[in-house]
Amino acid sequence: MLRTPQTPAKTYVLEPDNASFESRVELWLAGFGEQSVVTTDEIVAAVDRVPNHQLEGLRGIVYDPERVTQELTPFPEPWRFRIKGAFFQSQRCVVVYDFENRERFEHILYHEIGHYVYQYILDSFQRKHWVTQLYPASQFVTDIASRNACEDFAESYATYLCEPRRLLQIPKKHAFIRGELFA
Question: Would you say domain 9-14+27-121 falls under CATH 3.30.2010?
């Protein structure tokens, strides 16, 4: 079970200018006071880069460096690495465990939000297109992306937000993410 506070430390209401009530997203952040790498303003700015409709239903983003355990790394031998974040479907919550700097924090954050978007925002036709057309037929932005279609989407989504020029090297994936999610 995810260890999170009963009451969120802070709740942020993210909304565009002239937003209606329907476009508001309430998202709580917890645990980030225990680190000094990114400020609250940097966290909010990073989350603000994600369109609100892609955050609807996501409950929170938590920093919990003590939570990561070996049970979260059931990967085959070639894939042994330290997990830096996770998306917990049952809680609809992103947990960040470790990051060295603001850029790494943003990539981990967007990668985990990418898992949320893949599971809850893409419709079945979009997911099927990614799995059957885009994942098997192109290169990958990272080694992690080559693991499976979901990891490929999450890494491509994070790269689109952090290093869009890099994803341009894979035009079909860039076009899909831009056209389906950021148009």
Answer: yes
Bridge partners, 9 (sequence order)? none
Q: For the chain, count helices (H), then strands (E).
A: 6, 5
Quick one: tokens of 66? 């003590």
**CB contact at 8 A, 61 and 91:** no
Query: Looking at the whole model, is its pTM more than 0.85?
Result: no
Q: What percent of the chain has pLDDT over 70?
A: 78
Question: For residues 67 and 6, what is the distance between their CA atoms, to the nearest angstrom?
Answer: 16
- Tell me where in the chain the CATH 3.30.2010 domain(s) lie: 9-14+27-121
**Tens digits of residue pLDDT in 148-166:** 999 999 999 999 999 999 9
Nearest CA-CA partner of 62 in 119, 113, 16, 120? 113
Q: Which residues pair with 26 in a beta bridge?
A: 13
31 φ/ψ sector (left φ>0, alpha ψ -120 to 50, else beta): left
Rounded to whole angstroms, the Cα distance separating 70 from 145 reads 21
